[in-house]
Amino acid sequence: MLGPERIRLSRHDGSGGLSATVRDITFLGNNIHVATATAAGEALSVRLPFGHEAMAGLSPGDRVHLAFGPGAAHVFC
User: Fold this and answer.
1) Which of 18, 47, 51, 59 could form a disulfide linkage to 5, CB 3.0–4.6 angstroms apart?
2) Mean pLDDT of all residues in the chain?
3) Which domain holds residue 62?
4) 26 in a domain, yes or no?
5) Where do transmembrane segments lie in this chain (predicted)?
């Protein structure tokens, strides 16, 4: 499981991670929920703090880069 608050979103490609397309943006008080989809159609949710630099001018349909650290994922058996 990968929590939406553990995914880093950037407007610029970086090493590692994957590209995605913004599907929807929802403002939730101090947080912003960004619904994205990968090229394979997999949905990934990202939660950013209000005012995050990547949000400036971000709109549905924009391409973004998603990444997360090795300790961000949790496996439940």
Assistant:
1) 47
2) 87
3) 4-67
4) yes
5) none
